[in-house]
Each structure stands twice: as C-alpha cells, then as structure tokens.
Amino acid sequence: MRDTSSRGLTALIGAVLGLGALVTAFPFLWMLLGSVKPRPETVASPPALLPREPTLRYFGTLFGELDFGRYLVNTLVVVAIGMAGVVLAAMAGHGFATYRFRGRSALFLLVLTTMMIPVQVTMIPTYLLLDGVGLTGTLVGVALPSLVSGFGVFLFRQFMSTIPAEMIEAARIDGAGEARVFWRIVLPLSRPVVAVQLVLAFIAGWNSFLWPLVIAGDDRLYTLSVGVSLLNQQIATDPSLQMAGASLMVVPVLIVFVLFQRHIVRGFTLSGLT
Fold first, then answer.
1. How sure is the predictor about 108, in pLDDT bands with cuts at 50, 70 and 90?
2. Distance separating alpha carbons of residues 85 and 98, to the nearest angstrom
3. Which of 63, 86, 124, 144 could covalently link to 197 via disulfide, CB atoms 3.0 to 4.6 Å apart?
4. Burial class of 3 by CB neighbour count within 10 A (0 to 12, 13 to 18, 19+)
C-alpha cells in the first residue's frame, strides 16, 4: 500500500514539475516560433502558436540589411578576450591557494570586496582610466574590464585549496619549476572549475550590453545585445525581426549551458559553494 501511494506521489510531483517546466519554457518556444513567422501572422488576432508559412527571411535581414554580422564578430572577440582572462584568474587563485606570503589574507579580502561593488559605481573611473591610455573606442577597451573577476579568483582559490600540497611538493622535488607545476599539475586538476569559468565568461561576454554602449562610441563596435536593443531605431517595429534577434542572443547561451551543465554543477560542488 505504501509503495502504491509512494508511486502515486512521485507521479504527481513529476506531473507538477513537468507542467511548471512547460509554463517556464513557453515564452522561449513562442520566441523561436515567432522568429520564423511572417509579420502578418505575428500581429494577427487571435495569435497562433505554430507558423502557417515559416520563413527564415528575418535572419537574412539581420545579417544582410543590418549590421548584425559585424555585431556578431565584435561579440565573439569580446568573448574570446574574456575567456582568455580565465587563465589569469586561475593564476591568481593558484597564488592565493598555494603560496604563503605576508598580507595574503588582507589581499584576498580585497578581492572579495570587489564582488560587493556594483559595476555602475566603477564605470566612470574605469572609463577615465581607459581613456587615459587610449583604449576607448576599441574592442580591447570593451572587453578589458571583464578580463578578470573577483568571483573567478575566489572560485579558483576555493577549488585549488583542495589540491594536496604533497603532490605539488613532490613535483618541486622532481625539479619542476613553478610554471610547470601550474600548467602540468594544478590547471589539469582544475578542469571542472575551468569549465565553469569558461561558461561564465562566455555568457558575460555574449550578453554584454551597458559597457559596450558606453565605451564604444561607434556603432561599428557594438555587440549583439546592443544591436538587438537598437532594432526599433534601425527599422520600423517588426515583432518577427525582434524575435529573430532575441533568438540569436538566447539560443547560443542555452546550447552552451546544456552542453556544459554537468561541468558547472561539478565545479560548484567541488569548490564548496553548494
């Protein structure tokens, strides 16, 4: 009797969760289907979920008539620079986790403090610094502030603290230098958290909006998110075109997350953050 009631409760919970997932995914499904609907179908009343005459014309409009090809290249460059910063964060985390030096705790506390400061507070000082070195109006200037984050350093430090010190000492006794210890031992052992940071860097670079809008100064340096926000200014309001632009923004992030979700969960678990 208990087994029957337990199976019934499990089925009920599964049904409720499935319904919740369907409700949550419905806006995403509507966006995808709306991106391939002709405009008359998008503005029809009452609206229909499935397109009667699906078309990819609006994606062609984004890359053919608008500047989304350039925006895509800019976004990929920003993402690449941000992902390269993962190595710098790993080096900093390795330093905090492995070495003992005066002021280490105070310096690490300073790194954690940066996580509590809103980006908007540091935006003007950052702009003035980049302007002083001539990096405003460049893709490097767009990507540089997000090159290393305090959270990334913290995440690497938490994970690398779990690497046995005896393993590192044995490598040093065998004649390995500090660079070799990092590249051949510490970094390969940190693959789960490296995967987490790469995904987070990709999402941050792909979705970057406010800073590129401020620092670029030229629409040729805009990212995809800025381009999507400017659709209403570049062309008459077209829901299908807007849905196509939104799909272009959302689908790659969703694909990356689905492919690496196991690494993300494992990385956070092994870092002691769950």
1. very high
2. 20
3. 86
4. exposed
Distance CA 61, CA 241 (A): 8
Q: What is the CATH number of the domain that holds 102?
A: 1.10.3720.10
What total of structural domains would you count in the chain? 1
Tokens at residue 258, please? Answer: 């689905």
- Does the residue 8 lie in any domain? no
Q: Is 84 helix (H, G, I), strand (E, B) or coil?
A: helix
Compute the distance between CA of residue 79 and CA of residue 85 in angstroms, rounded to an integer.
Answer: 10
Q: Token match 């995967």: residue?
A: 195
**Among 249, 257, 233, 213, residue whose Cα is nearest residue 59:** 249
**Does residue 248 lie within any of the structural domains?**
yes
Q: Residues 212, 79: contact at Cβ < 8 Å?
A: no
Query: What percent of the chain is predicted at pLDDT more than 90?
Result: 11
Full domain range(s) for residue 137: 58-270
Looking up tokens 């909006």 gives: 209
The pTM assigned to this predicted structure is 0.82
